[in-house]
Design brief:
5 helices, mainly alpha, single chain
Length: 116
Amino acid sequence: MRFVLLLALLAGCSKKEEPARKGPAPMSEAERKRGEDACLAYVARLCSCAEAKGTQELKDRCELHKGRPDTVATALSAEGSPEVATMDILQAQDAARKVIAACVQDMTKLDGEGCP
């Protein structure tokens, strides 16, 4: 009987581990930095090309795409916030990765347009 009571007391006093942080892991700092750098380089090259060539189409694209680096930063700004739902964080990370991919793809298109 004492043995059962001792086991019950020990089970009740056992250390309970804190649950791990819920939600997805934040985007790695390396991925975030590469993405921001890719978008900044794309915008700089596009706007430089627009200035050099002087075409209205390139100037319009330059103005439109200047916001891409900010879009990535804004999408990832809520990653560490406990008030943000897991699904919202995942969607924000997905959106940031899509913008980064568009920057990389559009950078390669500039080669075909003769941009330096």
